[in-house]
Amino acid sequence: MIVNEKEIQAIIKEVILKMHKETESNKEPGIFPEMNQAIEAAVKAQKVLQRLTMDGREKIIQSIRKKIRENAELLAGMGVEETGMGNIPHKILKHQLVAEKTPGTEDIVTTAWSGDRGLTLIEMGPFGVIGAITPCTNPSETVLCNSIGMIAGGNTVVFNPHPAAVKTSNYAVRLVNEASMEAGGPENIAVTVANPTLETGNIMMKHKAIPLIAATGGPGVVTAVLSSGKRGIGAGAGNPPVLVDDTADIKKAARDIVNGCTFDNNLPCIAEKEVVAFSSITDELIHNMLENGCHMISKNQEEELIKLVLPGGKLNRKCVGRSAKAILSMIGAEVPDTVRCIIFEGEKEHPLIAEELMMPILGIVRAKDIEDAIEKAVWLEHGNRHSAHMHSKNVDHLTRFGKAIDTAIFVKNGPSYSALGFGGEGYCTFTIASRTGEGLTSASTFTKRRRCVMSDSLCVR
């Protein structure tokens, strides 16, 4: 059942009031006043979790999936209410995707060699307690996705969420603990603090009980994690280009690009951030993008937009995750509700093209041919090795761009979100560790390989 936004807002206010009361009385599961207390509780819970069978872990995960489905609308509404970013319908879809397509214990497999000299196994074992830093762009989605994967690997997790999304993130932590206890698992299987800060994050990163840190966020937080002296999984920034050549289905390409760019107001890090198109088809592409809800701004509006979005050369966080209509209204341009995306033409060095904006603004760069297009797209991706997209029916062009861009994600002839299993094959994740090389993380990412050898025995062939 889908409830309307007014009902969601009423439920959100009731939940937040209840959370405040429970936090004050320290009865909220998984939420602690101090980071050291949270870590201590997670260490105790991990000892219980490690004694559970794989079937026991899977029961917890199934319970988490159930909680996500039941609370998808509430969590979506909380995220928009607290951060002001994104939109409720798309956030509902993202939570449903987490519930349905995040890998669980099926991702934990054993490799075996059996022969004359005995039996050798490679087992995936837990790290123990994992520290996780989560963003405000996908707050509850990241907490829940990480929890499923980390728990499947036999770990408990300590979260230090972005302060701008603390209520939403902590409510997700609460749901994980409720799900665990209802399935017969331990309390404090996921923990956090009531008021996360840079200091609580530093305590977490330096704590001797935490051997692995997973950071999902901007380049600053990933750099901090990689400087911590611990093993780090870093899911950082991207500026994904989408390349369109002269063999593409232009109508479909325009529709896919606009749908991908506007999904949750461009908050996903994989979303199309700029277009590089062959000059011969650029006019046709723009025409079809306008047919799909885009608005072409004037040169004057373009200048106003630069001042608004990048004042002093720094990203205006008040514009991140806002709708195209809301952003245009900030520069005094009123457009119909049907407008979903702001477009304009420019060179690759244009500030609204070269910078990752995380808002439905698409700059379009013309290219002479495939060499020129690849050169411009690779430059725009800035070596993040995160995500890139292409619309083409030329296999050679697709292959050349894929090799040159060398990203963790390369979507061909589809919207960007198909990379996460939404309208495409494969599993879902909200921690894409391009910077540290793990790529799309899953339960197996949060395990360490252990070699178990029985010499000259247990081979019965």
CATH class term of the largest domain: Alpha Beta
- What is the name of the CATH superfamily of the largest domain? Aldehyde Dehydrogenase, Chain A, domain 1
Q: Count all strands and give the number.
A: 18
- Alpha-beta classification: alpha/beta
Percent of residues in helices: 40-55%
Q: Major sheet: size, sense and barrel closure? A: 7 strands, parallel
Query: What value does the average pLDDT take?
Result: 93
Number of domains: 2
Q: Count up the helices.
A: 15
| C-alpha-based Rg, rounded | 23 Å
Strand order of the largest sheet: 11-12-13-10-9-14-15
CATH architecture of the largest domain: 3-Layer(aba) Sandwich
Residue fraction in strands: 15-25%
Low-confidence stretches: none
Q: Tags for this entry?
A:
single chain; 461 residues; alpha/beta; Aldehyde Dehydrogenase, Chain A, domain 1; Aldehyde Dehydrogenase, Chain A, domain 2; 15 helices; 43% helix
Description:
The chain has 461 residues and is an alpha/beta fold. The protein has 2 domains: 5-236 and 439-451, 3-Layer(aba) Sandwich (Aldehyde Dehydrogenase, Chain A, domain 1), CATH 3.40.605.10; 241-426, Aldehyde Dehydrogenase, Chain A, domain 2 (3-Layer(aba) Sandwich). The protein is built from 15 helices and 18 strands. It has helices at 5-24, 35-51, 54-83, 88-101, 139-152, 166-182, 198-206, 219-226, 250-262, 279-291, 299-309, 324-329, 351-354, 370-381, 395-405; strands at 31-32, 111-115, 118-126, 129-134, 156-161, 190-193, 212-216, 231-235, 241-244, 274-278, 294-296, 341-345, 361-367, 387-391, 409-412, 432-433, 439-440, 447-455. The strands form 4 sheets. It has a 7-stranded parallel sheet with strand order 11-12-13-10-9-14-15, sandwiched between helices. Strands 1-6-5-4-7-8 form a 6-stranded parallel sheet, with helices on both faces. Strands 2-3-18 form a 3-stranded antiparallel sheet, with no helix packed on it. The longest helix has 30 residues, at 54-83. It starts with a helix and ends in a 6-residue tail after the last strand. The mean pLDDT is 93.
